[in-house]
Design brief:
Largest sheet: 5 strands, antiparallel
Strand content: 15-25%
Oligomer: single chain
Shape: globular
Number of strands: 27
Helix content: 25-40%
Radius of gyration: 31 Å
Number of helices: 23
Length: 775
């Protein structure tokens, strides 16, 4: 299964992409996970069972050689199923029913919203031969959400086709072709006797030259959904068609007003009318021009620069394991922050504690650190600092102890250092001894007393030079933790001159490589055995600049960061007294993390701050699950596949999962030597959520540098007197990124297309913001 949707109204039929590596539930049944596992020869696995998947097509028909199906009895009588080889949960349940192993007739437990209430299958056929190439399956659920997947996976290697494209070669001369978003809309028009086509991923579909060639000579009528993605969809289709046929007859109908941002656009399936009304609709079609996009009721209103951000998937908080799960739930409840924010905080704190004790040995024989990098996007007032304080109190407690000890150690060191220096000067100045005697006495004196390690474990701001210069006298495992991420992302270390070297150093530390620096004044510095964990909480504007920076993406730092952007709870956080059980859970978490921090780190013999962590082996059963997840992600990273936009991050998803599994293992057992199935399953669930979140943020377009420059220019023009600016002033006083004519003209063109500005004078050229200024 390659795609999953949560019913994002702005995304058309494409929905939000996902690897669909989540549990699926069927409730109201009369069988148990244990009875099914016994019939399939399964083994106990945590609170559930691991057995061979019964789907006939599993492994391309070769069957499930290694157990990859997880089943368990969930809450409210639900059966939780998950195939780590990617089989659709619905196919798993159907296979269990066909073998008489699942009786899900309704009981007092009632129906489960996760069971599809309707399923549709659409065949995509080759337009030349009419041969079926692949199918798209659409599930609709009682809660209004939808999910989609292709059979075979990845379209079986076929290029994307048009749904209904096989009918185009047989068109009568002059017969119009309707272009819509999604198979249901094609079928709705077919029922009216029309010929219609759609791309295979709804509003996100790519229009290829071969698609446009099929429409050469055909009149085309667009019927977009009445929202911004709908207009973007037909704009791409029109551009592709006109590239192949500049004189194409393109028309458009817009029977519904444009939806405001955040609302679901109406579409073909919402239109009600008989044959006469449909004929009148065709007659009302107007010539299509990009600038004629539907402005909505009343007037030519502005269009949003960025598509609406889809709702995030619920964070799988139960996959954090017993200790971290309880803590994250308690912090979320007590502080009233989204579960994802609390989860990011506790995972980051656990990573800082665990990385000093162990690495994870990947199945291909390379060890990786347990240090994790996190970024949480949240606005001012979303209680970032409060959440961090609840999470990091064991770190603060440990630092307090280190400071007290450091004061005493520094007293002894200063005395010892002064005595050593005096003795050294005495030996060096003694003129009565020869070279050999002086050398012998210096050897006996020994090296200068070592300065005590600095009494900190975390910092909220740093530069690479400062870190390298001070790390020889600091603890081997440190954390970059801040609830004011702008201090870091907009600080000296991330300015234009230092951004690349900062990113390169952070990436090397994530990889577990030694710190190596050669400087003219400082000489050579080599610091092996160092670990750095990171959690930066960033406000949205700063986050978009940081997370969309092309330098950071090309260098690879962003692929190493686990990002969450939960929805704000502001407006719903009425005061509530802290619950005793929440306080107890936070204390238990803190005590566990403090115990790990206080434990002697795994140091190289004779070294005081050079780590030599033991390697956590992955058990054979857990390694099989990890490899299946690795392959499941990899098959979706092709150029036309669901994870193409986040390929850099997806390529590291399996490694992220292994690192998370190691952290979860150490938190539960500091002396653990291997990672088991339960920790790996939980880690894969978490890694899958982060892949989905990366897709969600990427698809919202906020990483498009052209749109970001346009938004930056719009904000600057709004700040000018009267919301006006001349192009000459933009080039001399505007934002630095827009002070070249080509870049400024591109940004202005985008703002004009989105009706955010108007041109009030052509010579000299002056533009003005529509409707709003920041005077």
């Amino acid at each position: 299964m390659t795609m999953h949707a949560k019913g994002n109204p702005a995304a058309g039929d494409s929905g939000a992409r996902s690897t669909d590596f989540m549990r699926s539930g069927i409730g109201g049944r009369n069988t148990t996970a244990r009875s099914i596992a016994q019939a399939l020869g399964g083994i106990r696995n945590g609170n559930g069972y691991l057995c061979r998947c019964p789907v006939p097509s599993h492994g391309k028909g070769r069957g499930d050689r290694n157990p990859s199906l997880s089943i368990a009895d969930g809450d409210d009588g639900k059966l939780l199923v998950r195939c780590f080889a990617g089989c659709d949960p619905c196919n798993v349940l159907a296979a269990l029913r066909s073998r008489g192993l699942l009786d899900d007739r309704p009981t007092n437990g009632g129906a489960n919203a996760a069971k599809p209430v309707r399923t549709f299958t659409y065949e995509y056929r080759d337009p030349a031969s009419g041969e079926a190439r692949y199918r798209k399956i659409r599930h609709e659920y009682a809660n209004g959400s939808k999910s989609f997947f292709f059979e075979p996976k990845g379209r079986g290697g076929s290029p994307p086709l048009l749904y209904g494209g096989e009918r185009l070669p047989d068109l009568a001369e002059g017969q119009p072709v309707w272009i819509v978003e999604g198979e249901k809309k094609v079928e709705a028009l077919r029922a009216r006797g029309a010929i219609a086509v759609s791309g295979d991923t709804g509003a996100q579909s790519k229009w290829l030259p071969e698609h446009a060639q099929l429409l050469r000579g055909c009149p085309v009528i667009f019927w977009p959904d009445s929202d911004a993605p709908g207009e973007g969809y037909i704009a791409r289709a029109a551009a592709a068609i006109r590239a192949e046929n500049p004189g194409a007859d393109l028309r458009v109908v817009r029977p519904f007003p444009m939806a405001v941002e955040g609302e679901k656009g109406r579409d073909v399936c919402d239109w009600v009318g008989g044959n006469e009304e449909f004929a009148a609709l065709i007659e009302s079609a107007k010539p299509y021009e990009p600038e004629a996009a539907n402005p909505g009721p009343g007037a030519d209103g502005p269009l949003p620069l960025f598509p609406p951000l889809a709702e995030p998937e619920p964070f799988p908080i139960a996959a954090l394991g017993a200790t971290l799960c309880r803590a994250a739930k308690a912090i979320s409840s007590k502080v009233q922050v989204p579960p994802a924010m609390a989860a990011q905080s506790v995972l980051a704190g656990a990573s800082l504690a665990a990385c000093a004790h162990a690495d994870v040995m990947l199945p291909y024989g390379q060890a990786r650190p347990l240090s994790l990098f996190f970024a949480t996007v949240a606005a001012s007032g979303d209680r970032k600092s409060t959440s961090d304080r609840e999470t990091l109190w064991p770190v603060r407690k440990r630092e307090e102890f280190l400071r007290e000890r450091h004061i005493e150690e520094m007293k002894h060191w200063k005395h010892a250092s002064a005595a050593w220096a005096a003795e050294k000067r005495k030996i060096e100045g003694d003129k009565k001894i020869d070279f050999q005697e002086r050398k012998s006495r210096l050897v006996v004196l020994g090296d200068e007393p070592i300065k005590p390690l600095s009494a900190f474990l975390t910092t909220g701001d740093m530069t690479i030079e400062g870190l390298v210069k001070n790390w020889p006298d600091a603890h081997a495992a440190l954390g970059l933790f801040t609830a004011e991420g702008g201090m870091f992302t907009a600080g000296h270390g991330m300015n234009d001159d230092n951004r690349l070297k900062t990113a390169a150093m952070l990436s090397e530390l994530w990889d577990g490589l030694p710190v190596k620096r050669i400087r003219a004044l400082d000489g050579v510095t080599i610091l092996p055995g160092r670990r750095l964990a990171m959690h930066v909480m960033i406000q949205p504007d700063a986050a978009e600049s940081f997370l969309s920076n092309p330098t950071l993406r090309d260098q690879g730092l962003l692929s190493r960061v686990l990002i969450a952007r939960p929805e704000s709870l502001a407006g719903s956080r009425l005061y509530q007294e802290p619950r005793p059980e929440d306080t107890a859970a936070i204390r238990a978490y803190g005590a566990r993390v403090l115990l790990i921090l206080e434990a002697e780190p795994a140091l190289m013999p004779g070294k005081r701050n050079e780590l030599d962590p033991r390697a956590l082996q992955i058990t054979p059963e857990a390694a099989t699950i990890w490899r299946d997840f690795h392959d499941h992600i990899e098959t979706q990273c092709g150029s036309d596949s669901p994870l193409a936009l986040v390929r850099d991050f997806a390529a590291k998803a399996a490694e992220h999962a292994a690192r998370i599994a190691g952290v979860l293992t150490i938190v539960e057992d500091l002396e653990a030597r291997e990672i088991g199935v339960e920790a790996m399953l939980n880690a894969i669930t978490l890694a899958d959520w982060y892949v989905n979140e990366a897709c969600r943020l990427q698809e919202a377009g906020r990483s498009d540098p052209r749109l970001r420059r346009a938004a930056l220019l719009l904000k600057w023009i709004q700040s000018q007197p009267g919301g006006k600016a001349a192009i000459s002033r933009i080039l001399t006083h505007g934002p630095n990124a827009l002070r070249t004519k080509a870049v400024a003209e591109d940004a202005l063109a985008i703002l004009l297309d989105h009706r955010r500005i108007i041109e009030v004078l052509s010579r000299p050229r002056i533009v003005q913001v529509i409707g709003e200024t920041c005077e």
